Amino acid sequence: DAKTTQPPSMDCAEGRAANLPCNHSTISGNEYVYWYRQIHSQGPQYIIHGLKNNETNEMASLIITEDRKSSTLILPHATLRDTAVYYCIVRVAYSGGGADGLTFGKGTHLIIQP
Amino acid sequence: EADIYQTPRYLVIGTGKKITLECSQTMGHDKMYWYQQDPGMELHLIHYSYGVNSTEKGDLSSESTVSRIRTEHFPLTLESARPSHTSQYLCASSEIGGASQTQYFGPGTRLLVL
Which residue among B59, B99, B105 places its CB closest to the CB of A99? Predict the structure, then answer.
């Protein structure tokens, strides 16, 4: 799986959009970009994923650059409950075989300020 | 929200006791996983299963065992708990096949062995 680079921490004011960047310059054509977050002491929470096109769901939007070398996760109206560590990972689409465990790296600690 | 549940959420137990951590999911997913995570540290895959009667060891060696008698249920057992087993245990599940296979996590069980 390709390596990703994220800033270690970011602040955002409550109610504003939080934009979290991720660089994945060695991404392969069959690799997806996934975002998860982990709130202190809880299990990781899936947020969104995409291959080439921008994606949006009820939690967030994912913007992937045309060359696919970077992406941005957007939380449109951040709340205090969005304070968490956000992980960007790049993975091939497995067919179900093997130990396809997730590896998160350091992630970005997003702190929402009141 | 993912429909994957873990009990207990917290467990404090003495050395030598047998414990079973429960995990169940209602999404009909064939593949299930157990991860171990220490505070602020990386996830480590310890067990996974492709479906009923399938169990495999993950990347990190663990003294725990798992079983998969029903699709929705994937319990983890420690026959004799030791202080070195103190950690957070996370269960996850995913579909098999398809273009991408998102893993959905439960809330975790925090285990403290005295």
Answer: B59
